[in-house]
Amino acid sequence: TPASNIRNFAIIAHIDHGKSTLADRMLETTATVAARDMQAQLLDSMDLERERGITIKLNAARMAYEKDGEPYVLNLIDTPGHVDFSYEVSRSLAACEGALLVVDAAQGVQAQTLANVYLALENDLEIIPVLNKIDLPAAEPERVAEEIESTIGLDCTDAILASAKSGLGIGDVLDAIVERVPPPSDDQEKPTRCLIFDSKFDAYQGVVTYFRVVDGTGIAKGDKVKFLATGKTHDITEVGVMVPERIPVSDRALKPGEVGYFVASIKSVDDARVGDTVTVVKSQSHAVSTDEAEPLPGYAEATPMVFAGVFPTDADQYNALRDALGKLKLNDAALRYEAENSPAMGFGFRCGFLGLLHMEIVQERLEREYDVDLIITAPSVVYKVVPRQKNSEAVVEKVMKGEALKEGLIQEASEEDTPTVLVVDNPSRMPDKDRQQHTLEPYVRLEVIAPTEYTGPLMDLANERRGELVDMKYLTPTRTTVIYQMPLAEVITDFFDQVKSRTRGYASMEYALSGYRESPLVRLDVMINKELAAPLSTVVHEQDAQAAGKVLVRKLKEFIPRQMFKVPIQACVGANIVASVQLSAMRKDVLAKCYGGDISRKKKLLQKQAKGKKRMKAMGKVTVPQEAFMAVLNLR
Ligand code: GTP
């Protein structure tokens, strides 16, 4: 197929607006997948994704389509739907020339619609609006078309009316892709460059790398390729296309504009990172330019925004956990982990995640696929601390601008040199507040869309969470968007739950990191039975410390089971106790009852309980359940 007959496109949508259903229908219509082979929602191939009904990992499908007697190849590149993966969304969009913007005609524009449109515009894509679910009685396509025009500034005169469910309008969608999405450019003079938009670990083949050929003479089986970000070279043992299952192509090179996969005995996805550029350095089958290939723009390493401690409930499972993390990492370049041991928790790992959803997915996969029981400590953002000394103001400025700086352990203030920046991804490592230091925390730009009647409650919530109003706009007379600058630490708590509950579920929300700001922050510690429980330490705004401490000890009292002795639970800032409660001792008769009765029955019961995977961790003489670790997530 000449490049002029290829169309590369993505589908962007807010969650649940019908992206996967539309993709399925297109595969069916183009006979890419026979109807009887259709497993609902083919593109979401991971079990966990299907269960949660969200698209996490991208994938691609090649479809054959004929229009006016001309054969076309349409490559659909699927994008993950969730904010945690916005870098991956952006790279998969970079592999396309156009995007279908799917909007639920009964719901209208939502926060993820906007976030995804911004990413598509940044990548210069031709955007085709599709108003989906018009079969629903509540659908108001005209009103939603107006909303798209007024919020995004996208002309909706040619918006397509569709029902992915019934199949209505699917032909129009396919025609529009051929007519409106520009064909890929085809520069065979340049050195070959392929953009990696996904890679995944396959138990039999090693890493499978998904790519789009951007220019050059293409890529074929037997080629020696080089990854520009890592500098590593590999020999390609298989090249092919996705229909959507992988079909090897051995008789030719994939050419500019084509989308495919290759296998090259790569062991970890870390060596085939999303966003990296692959060039061909040697080939038996086709001419290779000797010019140096420039990397394609936009490569960035995934930066974890949220960190948490991950510990096996049972110390014997430490090795199993380490192996499981190692295997998971082969398939998840964004996951970070390093060994951590704490006197309270024993041996475990400090893990970095892209966001809360990513964290939950990793936790679930560890437990399900690798069968290890875990305790996860409350997620924390990454704080930065600069000692107050000569030149420190200038360093603080640079941290706020996101410039790369010398990082290291915090030093005693010395007169001469420029201070290093302490990076704190574990609240218990936040230096004491009496030190002379600047404390900085990450901020996000947060956008919430909701019916106008909920604007008041939303603003109250944002104020409670240290939000600063940036802008407020009416999307339509009945729907409003509010934009805030807010500390990320406030967002990764139960914030989204609160947004939902205060808007009766009608709000949608998106956020992106906007930079660092200086805030007066202190470390709030917990003492259980007079012993420091470091994994329960948290960082709070100085003003909130006392109130937060009170809530924390009260909650811990609820979650921690009573012991045979009295247990004081205290919250402290430095040496000051800001709140304190007492867990009273268990009464004797309760205990007696526990141990009474038939011993074999008792054993059976214990076994049953063990199977129920009670997530508990002994800290000193006290057993602390998983819920207690998450208590710090809402201290209001
Ligand atoms: P993510 O993969 O989570 O981003 O969601 P999605 O956008 O892929 O949505 P999905 O295709 O899973 O559809 C969400 C729900 O809407 C499903 O229950 C679909 O059956 C339903 N749905 C999709 N298209 C239509 C439509 O045209 N009409 C109606 N009535 N329901 C639809």
Automatic annotation (TrEMBL):
Organism: Pelagomonas calceolata
Protein function: Promotes mitochondrial protein synthesis. May act as a fidelity factor of the translation reaction, by catalyzing a one-codon backward translocation of tRNAs on improperly translocated ribosomes. Binds to mitochondrial ribosomes in a GTP-dependent manner.
Protein name according to UniProt: Translation factor GUF1 homolog, mitochondrial
Entries under InterPro entries matching the protein: EF-4, EFG_III/V, EFG_V-like, EFTu-like_2, G_TR_CS, LepA_C_sf, LepA_CTD, LepA_IV
Catalytic activity: GTP + H2O = GDP + phosphate + H(+)
Membrane topology annotation: Peripheral membrane protein
One GO term (biological process): translation
UniProt GO cellular component terms: chloroplast; mitochondrial inner membrane; mitochondrial matrix
Assigned protein family: Belongs to the TRAFAC class translation factor GTPase superfamily. Classic translation factor GTPase family. LepA subfamily.
Gene Ontology molecular function: any one: GTP binding
Keyword DNA-binding: no
Subcellular location: Mitochondrion inner membrane; Plastid, Chloroplast
UniProt-listed CDD domains: EF4_II, EF4_III, LepA, lepA_C
EC number(s) per entry: 3.6.5.n1
Domain Tr-type G: 4-185
Binding residues annotated for GTP, in chain numbering: 13-20, 78-82, 132-135
Keywords associated with the record: GTP-binding, Hydrolase, Membrane, Mitochondrion, Mitochondrion inner membrane, Nucleotide-binding, Protein biosynthesis, Signal
UniProt key word Manganese: no
